[in-house]
Amino acid sequence: MANFVIHKANSRGRADYGWLKTSYSFSFSNYYNPERVHFGVLRVLNDDYIEGGMGFGTHPHDNMEIITIPFEGALEHKDSMGNSSVIKAGDIQVMSAGTGITHSEFNHYKDKPLKLFQIWLFPNRKNVEPRYQQISLDVKDRQNKLQQVLSPDAGDEGVWIYQEAWFMMENFTKGHAETYRIKRSGNGVYVMIISGNLEIHGQTLSDRDAIGIWDVEEIDIKALSDAEILVMDIPMS
User: Fold this and answer.
1) Per-residue pLDDT tens for 103-147?
2) pTM of the entire structure?
3) DSSP of 10-67, one letter per residue?
4) Contact 146/178 with Cβ under 8 angstroms?
5) What CATH code would you report for 12-136?
6) What are the residue ranges spanned by the domains of the chain?
7) Quick check: 222 and 199 in contact, CB under 8 A?
């Protein structure tokens, strides 16, 4: 029998540093909730708003798969692997931190805000050689159909990571319905409502609400308004 948990938008941890306003789906920084440490291998889902010209100075990571999805504005990235890039809305970036990297992230624009999700997954292999990948996606390819943006396979659509995980994004028009089939036995799904109102697994959800579902083979999704979602299909252990 399917199990599920709902994380309403207003139940997330919050922080306001002036230049950074953020909501934490899982325990992070000064926010700790023993009920919300992770969902399967999904460790971090931060919903960041960064003021113009501001950002995170050089800092380290290791043994984590780090995915960045901007929604508005552009992120300027530099790292110890020699990468220097700008990640815009419609792009997706991944770093396999492996044995260790350092990087910095700043709002590329001085006069516009930056909005993004930063997502961390535990990897299925430790101490790999660090790697970086960034691609641009055609957002039109997710209109009323699931667009794969991440997978475990370097030859598949989207970026790839060291984990048996798949991410999908879709922009719904009101009334459109989908059935999503879990990619791998033992995986669950964590669905974040980016915007709009949807019915998922019989539950009504709105902007920035999320639902985690496991012990299931497929889930039904129906748009109650125009809507946008991120589906994360991930190992539960």
Assistant:
1) 999 999 999 999 999 999 999 999 999 999 999 999 999 999 999
2) 0.97
3) GGSEEEE-SSEEEEESS-BTTB--TT-S-BTTEEEEEEEEE-TT-EEEEEEE-S-EEE
4) yes
5) 2.60.120.10
6) 12-136, 139-235
7) yes
